[in-house]
Design a protein that fits this description.
Blueprint: H1 3-26, H2 31-56, H3 62-87, H4 91-112, H5 119-135, H6 145-148, H7 153-173, H8 181-203, H9 217-238, H10 244-251, H11 253-264, H12 272-291
Helix pairs in contact: 1-9, 1-11, 2-8, 2-9, 3-7, 3-8, 4-5, 4-7, 4-10, 5-12, 8-9, 11-12
Protein name: EamA domain-containing protein
Keywords: Membrane, Transmembrane, Transmembrane helix
Transmembrane segments: 33-52, 64-81, 93-112, 119-137, 184-203, 215-238, 244-266, 275-292
């Protein structure tokens, strides 16, 4: 992976961690409302520029739309699952494991696309996965079976499959769209718009379509910018990267950033095992970047 797409991915992890901190600040039980407001505002603010650009100078060819729609469906499933995990207040377990699983799954898809990661690349990806799983440990103890294979099973699998699906689809679509940041932004809008439709269909949050006059505009707008910006950069990076598995693995750097942000902004105390997780992720990413081919 060259330096520029790597820079884009690392920058995206900062934005991604930022909007997750915003979501946590909103409170676990009402995070679904926060997601809803972000998606609504994204659809409303981006509709005119995205449609105008696509009509005036089509950047997304016809053959890429099926992949885009499929990716958006996976996005909606991911958001619905994540919202459910927040509501059950098991996000610290569900989120890192759901982020870990797609690293391996997407790497397997790379094999079928004749972009198989190198042996050391696989090793780095496995170490990153282990680091993600370490994050889910509580006070240095293993995650209980009842937590993972209980009420959290459905959101965990939904988030993992959703992430795997949209990562594979978007990597394939990146080879079809016009290369550049503008096409990535237009693609990102329609991807999120489709995801919003699916999210509301799954959660049946019809009441949230009504604009609340007491809405905290600034936090929601910040969430829109952080969420959109994070994945826009990833989509742009996909256009310059051949192996989606490496991109997904590098995106886990957001967990490292998230730990730091939790200390700085949420004043959380980070247990020692979480620093072990951070170290594992860093080592895995170093192996991928230096020896992954």
């Amino acid at each position: 992976m060259s330096l520029f797409p790597l820079f884009l991915i690392l920058l995206s992890t900062i934005l991604h961690a930022g909007w997750n901190v915003q979501a946590r600040r909103s409170g676990g039980k009402v995070v679904g409302l926060y997601f809803s407001r972000i998606l609504i505002m994204t659809v409303l603010l981006g509709a005119v520029p995205a449609i105008w650009v696509q009509i005036s100078s089509p950047l997304i060819p016809a053959e890429a739309w099926l992949l885009l729609i499929a990716s958006g469906i996976c996005c909606g499933v991911y958001y619905a699952a994540l919202s459910k995990a927040y509501a059950q207040e098991e996000l610290n377990v569900v989120y890192p494991i759901a982020r870990a699983i797609p690293v391996i799954f997407v790497g397997i898809f790379d094999i079928f696309l004749n972009e198989e990661p190198s042996l050391l690349g696989w090793g780095g990806m496995v170490i990153v996965v282990l680091g993600c799983i370490f994050v889910a440990f509580r006070s240095g103890e293993s995650v209980s079976v009842s937590t993972v294979f209980g009420p959290s099973t459905v959101p965990l699998l939904g988030a993992a499959l959703g992430t795997t699906g949209y990562s594979v689809m978007d990597n394939a679509a990146a080879e079809l769209v016009v290369t550049g940041p503008t096409s990535a932004a237009v693609y990102c809008y329609f991807y999120l718009a489709t995801g919003a439709f699916v999210y509301f269909s799954i959660t049946n949050r019809t009441a949230f379509w009504k604009i609340n006059l007491k809405i905290d505009f600034v936090p929601v707008l910040a969430g829109v910018i952080l969420n959109f910006g994070a994945y826009w950069l990833v989509l742009w990076a996909y256009q310059m990267s051949s192996r989606a598995g490496y991109v997904v693995a590098c995106r886990q750097f957001s967990i490292v950033v998230g730990v730091i942000m939790a200390i700085v902004f949420l004043k959380e105390r980070v247990p020692s095992h979480r620093w072990l997780a951070v170290g594992s992720i860093m080592v895995g990413l170093f192996i991928i970047l230096v020896w992954g081919k």
